[in-house]
Amino acid sequence: MTTNDADLVRAAWQRFNDLNSELLELALTDGDLDRGSAATLLARLVGHIQYMGLLLRSDPARPTLINTQYSPWNWGHSNPDTLYLSARIDDVHDYRVYGTVGSVSQTTFGVYTGKDDQGTAVKVLADDLDIADDGTFEIFFGREQRGTNWFELPRGADSFCAYQTYGDWDREAKGAIRIECLGEAQPAEPQSLSITVEAFDAHLAASRELFTMWVKDIPARVFGALPKNVAIPPMQPPSAMAGAWFVPIAWELGDDQALVIDYRIPDGSPYVGICLTDRWSAMIDIETRQTSLNLGQSQIADGHVRILLSTKDFGVANWLDARGYRGGVVTWRATAPTQPGTPVITVIGTDDIDSYFDPAQRLTPAERAATLAKRQRHFAERNTP
After folding, report:
1. What domains does the chain contain, in order, with CATH numbers?
2. Distance between CA atoms of 236 and 243, rounded to whole angstroms?
3. Across the beta sheet with 136-142, what order do the strands follow?
4. Three-state secondary-structure class, residue 342
5. pTM (2 decimals)?
6. pLDDT in tens, 211-251
């Protein structure tokens, strides 16, 4: 390596360091961070670097599926019940997606353009595909029609995603999903240092854009515009899975307050879930704390579910653990053919909890610990390739 080459590498690495210092300051701009947000910020920044490192090595001509919502980097207001697999693609290649469908409540495939709520998508439910009796399938996303399960690749396509949503963590199993680029690919060539540095700088720009979107732009433009502790009617953003309805609820509580969330299960719905995210749209300690509940984990009475969101554990079975946080966003989501009813939100004092939740049905510390141990085992299995 020449002296000039070494200087190019050093300069690129300095730009990397400068960028991450800039992103840290961006997150710290709002000085009113609660303890939970402050305590997770450094890990969130490192997770972002990990995720962007995977994208740096991705190649649309040789797509590789990665878990895009693995806990260290789960930007995006994601669903703890869903295993997200994604690969970088483009609109000049054709792709075959194949494998086996598991027994999860819902499997969705999609090709996306753009970022989050500004993007467009081609989305399809596994239930609407031609699938063999043994669960095997193949889908084609391309410019020319082929096979039974073919979908036109939109101009500007940049990512493929597969979503596998669990309704019952104990009894359902994920499928095996793969993707390949069709046609003859030229052998990969060694890159020159100049090309590598150029790609690295493009990577830095993408890193800044993604971090800024989730830490600043979307919280201010979308969730910051929501009224506090109020549920809006269910909606379907462009980036949502096929058939999914969302209700984002911006919540904020005082020291002696809690939130009661009541909802009716939509008729014929195969999936309903609710989860907490922090101010930056990242899921909160999903592997170790009860920060989400689906129907299989909830106590249900005559098609009705009542949930307590609080910053202290009162032993309620249907509890969302908001310890360490003063506010954030709780998202209710359901799969349904038509718009479901809107959940009902009630702010109560913590001394009124017994009026909403039977004191005789509280969990013991040992029962809570057993529930959390099951949760950890599930994520260990789900995240094992």
Report:
1. 224-382 (2.60.120.1600)
2. 8
3. 150-152, 136-142, 95-100, 176-181
4. coil
5. 0.90
6. 999 888 888 887 778 899 999 999 987 666 667 899 999 99
